[in-house]
Amino acid sequence: MLVGVVLIVAGIALVAVTAWFWSSARPDNPVLAPLEVMGDDAYLNADEETRKELLRQARAEAFARLDDDSELR
User: Which residues 6+ apart lie within 8 Å of 61 measured at CB?
Assistant: First the structure.
């Protein structure tokens, strides 16, 4: 009986910590978008011109999001 109560309390504590973590976490800064692109298979397997284009697109999208998200400045 006591073990069951302890496990239920531990579960409730884990849910509370998870909810706190998710609410306090900040989104990634859009300027880091090129790093995410560099980790993709499409980037790794692409030729040099395609890589440059993928990075250009990621940077353009990041700067567009920076204009929309005033919190990240």
Answer: 30, 33
Q: Give every CB contact of residue 37 below 8 A, 6+ residues apart in sequence.
A: 43, 54, 55, 57, 58
CA end-to-end distance (rounded Å), the chain = 53
Q: What is the pLDDT of residues 2-57, one digit of tens each?
A: 999 999 999 999 999 999 999 888 877 888 889 999 999 999 999 999 999 999 99
The closest of 21, 24, 25, 30 to 73, measured between CA atoms, is: 30
pTM (global) more than 0.85: no
